[in-house]
Amino acid sequence: MKYNKKFVASFVLIIFTFYPNLLRAIHVPYSVESAVKWSNSIYQDILSNFNRNISSRHQHVFDISSEGVKRDAVFVTGSCSGIGESVCNLLASNKFKLIITAREARKPDLNQLSNLIRYGLGTSCEYCTLDMSCINDFDQFIRANIFVSKALVGTSLSCIVHNAGVMLGSTGKECVSVNTLAPFALSLGLLPHLLRTASAAGGSAKIVQLTSSSHLRAPVYRKGDLLSIYRSEKVNIRDAMANYSKSKLCLMLSGEVLRKRIRNARVGIYDVHPGLVDTKMLQKFFGNHRFPFRNKFLRSPNEAARDIVQLICSESDEVPHKPYFVNGLHCPERASDNAYREQDAELCYEDMLSLVPREIRLNLLETYEKLATRPHSRRWPIRERCRQKNCFTPAAKKALTSICKDLRKSLLLS
Known about the structure:
Layout: H1 5-18, H2 20-25, H3 32-50, H4 52-55, E1 73-76, H5 82-93, E2 97-102, H6 107-120, E3 125-129, H7 138-151, E4 157-162, H8 172-199, E5 205-210, H9 225-230, H10 237-261, E6 267-273, H11 280-285, H12 294-297, H13 301-313, E7 324-326, E8 329-330, H14 342-355, H15 358-372, H16 385-388, H17 394-413
Parallel strand pairs: 1-2, 1-4, 2-3, 4-5, 5-6, 6-7
Antiparallel strand pairs: 7-8
Helix pairs in contact: 5-13, 7-8, 8-10, 8-15, 10-14, 15-17
């Protein structure tokens, strides 16, 4: 069944009328142009959810069960519920090795999911607790890096999925930590593993960042914006939505800088907007109301997970300009230009490095310097074990050296 524009517009009007959180959310200051673009993005999400035949056309672009796809390890954050849990189940059913994380309070759920994957699906699954809101807890991030290194013995890391996120009921510090700083710090910490995988013959790796159409509401990034949000203690819905929008914009800006630093190293960084998905985060936003046609209005976590896994399984190494994906399709026209401006990205990158704890930056610098100065073997890879000996391509070495310079500069300025 097809739905015309008037029907969808009327339905959106009803939703906005009965759910005041939406009206409060759109009061966040932004330009008319960004308001129109965000509204259009929401409209397209709703239309594609109504017309399942539109959103299902891309389901066979990549064959998840293809025998040509290499089943290396995948690191997933926020894996105990919603999209993260669905991604883990779908990857495990296709024999990918998993490393999953969640906060300490969800440790029983982590254990249950891990056992289900190990004994129910017959796939290797390791888990560790990681509270991404506590970015200042230096020890837990170091423990997570050590844990991942041990879990990767005998295999390699092919992808990181940054799924964890918060929206309402969080302070500015928590919002920035979970949505932006922790994914950024984890990407830097695990990047050597990805570069090692990409340096092997025919190898490639990916970082998948789950973003949101809310980034369209955020204004152009200015120097110090992230610091002001980080210090904000307001938790009313207007400020929470403004912080959420800006944090997602900053996540995309950080990805733009890292893409520049690791250019030609065969590690792709992708921004993925899963659409309007029926998760606990969105349920909280709607006040846990059960409105009519909910299954038509929102996507299921399994549908969103399938799009993400299809992207992970894609064999293409080329990262397109504005790698913004919506419902599994490359849609650069639906992304904000503010998220891919090189000058703004550099400013955001500097602010993010300054907010990462000094101990973590020192640890990263020490690791990167050791790897960047290791001599390169001209005959790589002679054997499969060559990859385990930290052999990097010249492009990977260049990426490590470039990030070393950034870390030294930030340490001198802090």
